[in-house]
Design goal:
3 helices; nine-stranded mixed β-sheet; 16% helix; 28% strand; two-stranded antiparallel ribbon; single chain; 11 strands; alpha+beta
């Protein structure tokens, strides 16, 4: 598969093959001494509407307009860099995996941190980048993937989770369809915004297996390091008074 080819991932094989899979055992036996993490699904910058997803061969990602997967677990991911981030694998000066307590410099309460306040960064944004890390599992696979949502997609994700909760559903009880749309902020800067929709409900048997894997992923998530944010991430205008992200132009 070439990088510039568009493919559709919609294997409707279900998740019943998880019956004989244990994430902890697999990571311990097969990845002992290796990089203990998961592959990433990448959201492009500059308004592209295709994801980069892991392909058959390492280092050769596929590009897809949409994909379907179960959201196993998700949590905040905060990162503050004293100097402007320009790429690379350097960890942040201060980071948080729960959005409550930061570790590093300055560390402490995220709610009280001056770098986590609107207006502390460019264009009224926060100097501390607030993202959302999502662990997903595509049908036909047994290892989770990581999707890191940037600022411009957090409001849409929050709306989606609230819609599910209003119907008495959890995010890991349905197969979610992920897509992207091109959005533009009030300054004319174009960025890629993630969209979410229910593809189908899990069966009772599938949900029982997914719930078990969700607990394993949640426990393992504390051992996964911070994402390395791409240089030139979209700039989102934020009202420093209300904290509202400027809605994309239609």
């Amino acid at each position: 598969m070439k990088n510039n080819e568009l493919v559709t991932i919609n294997e409707n094989t279900g998740f019943l093959q998880l019956a004989n899979f244990n994430l902890d055992e697999a990571m311990a036996s097969e990845l002992d001494g290796l990089d203990m993490t998961f592959e990433r699904i990448k959201i492009p910058s500059a308004g592209s509407t295709v994801f980069e997803v892991p392909g058959e061969n390492p280092g050769e990602p596929d590009t897809v307009k949409e994909f379907s997967a179960v959201i196993l677990y998700h949590h905040p991911l905060y990162a503050y860099y004293k100097d402007k981030y320009t790429g690379g694998s350097n960890p942040p000066d201060c980071g948080s995996f729960d959005g409550i307590t930061g570790e590093g410099d300055p560390g402490g309460s995220c709610a009280k941190c001056p770098y986590n306040q609107f207006g502390s960064g460019e264009n009224g944004s926060k100097a501390c980048k607030n993202r959302r890390r999502i662990y997903v599992l595509r049908e036909g696979e047994i290892f989770p993937l990581i999707l890191s949502l940037p600022t411009g997609s957090l409001k849409e994700f929050s709306r989606y989770i609230k819609r599910l909760l209003s119907k008495g559903k959890k995010s890991n009880s349905v197969v979610t369809r992920f897509s992207l749309k091109k959005a533009t902020n009030s300054s004319g800067i174009t960025y890629s915004q993630a969209q979410f929709a229910v593809d189908r409900n899990l069966t009772a048997d599938e949900y029982a297996l997914i719930s078990k894997l969700s607990e394993q992923v949640k426990a393992f998530s504390t051992r996964v390091g911070h994402d390395t944010e791409p240089a030139g991430e979209e700039v989102i205008n934020v009202d420093p008074e209300t904290g509202e992200i400027t809605e994309p132009l239609k």
